[in-house]
Amino acid sequence: MAQLKAHEFDRYLSSAAGRHRLFLVYGPDRGLVSERAARLAERSGADMQDPFSVIRLDADDLRGDPGRLADEVNAIGLFGGARLIWLRGAGNDRSLATSVAAIADGISADTTVIIEAGELKKGATLRKAAEDAPGALAIPCYADEGRDVQALIDEELASAGLRITPGARERLAEALGGDRLASRGELRKLALYCHAGDQITEADVVASVGDAAALSVDDAVDAVLVGDAAALDTALQRIVASKTGIFSVLLACLRQFQALDRLKTEMTASGRSASQIVASARQIHFRRRPAVEAALSVWQPHALAQALDHMHRAVLEMRRRPELENDIARQSLMAVTARSGRKTRT
Fold first, then answer.
1. In angstroms, rounded to a whole number, what is the distance separating the alpha carbons of residues 95 and 97?
2. pLDDT at residue number 163
3. Topology classification of domain 6-140
4. pLDDT tens digits for 187-201?
5. How far is Cα 346 from Cα 340, in angstroms, rounded to an integer?
6. In the chain, what are the domain boundaries?
7. What distances in angstroms separate CA 8 from CA 18, 26, 130, 136, one per listed residue?
8. All residues at 6 or more sequence positions from 294 whose CB lies less than 8 Å from its CB, including other chains
9. Does residue 291 register a pLDDT over 80?
10. pTM of this prediction exceeds 0.70
């Protein structure tokens, strides 16, 4: 079976890319699919600016003409040299899978075929054809996570000559992944934003990356939990600047206090400490655990019920008076923050 594991692509490209003539690059991360296909194209040896050397096709070009791919592969180049047939937008089409199975083992040494496809489940006709043909290779592309995101951060920031603080790296990693090209775009935008300095801070990440609003919502909720009115005001300013409604913060805060109420009930019933309860709660991100633990230590069940009732009434009032939505949400959040601050100080 000729298939790479998702993390083996770079090593394969540097050592063994010439062993196969047909590549099926597929997966849910469309940006990574495009990026890896482009890197394979560069290694093909074909002149990317020569329309006689590079034949670009779309899946629609094969509809009604299933033999088109085989015809292009078997055609003789007008001026010789390396040739590349690059097909984009492929799906799990049976006729395409049949063509792949028929041509994979007979492609000449100076011709490379690259097929870009979306998600293909195990056993999908096109994927199976590429995996079973000795001259073909299937290359899966899944969303970046963990070390892949960290490697991407290192690569882009090193090329820009920038360093990054540990806290900023952690925030940045949370905001990236899902689509490789989108992640690269965010990193290059961040590098441009910070080009006047030599080190990226957390504030730079929050101000620049596309998921800044989500990061600021988390900051706002944590500020409410620990009773930090100044931090809440700063987070709300960032949220407003990102064109996101404060309504979203109130809803996130409402969900957090509902979770806090459940954890408090579990804490009372089990006799465990706040730190033990938070440590066992998998749904809480490690960066946010100190704020949740602090809130769990000071909020009592009756006070949590009162805070939840206050926020529910604010949501109802916002629906009645949508023109004052942001003002009502801000006032409600500030009131709960003040109460949390008094409990923390006490």
1. 5
2. 92
3. Rossmann fold (3.40.50)
4. 888 899 898 888 998
5. 10
6. 6-140, 147-210, 213-345
7. 15, 14, 17, 16
8. 225, 226, 344
9. yes
10. no
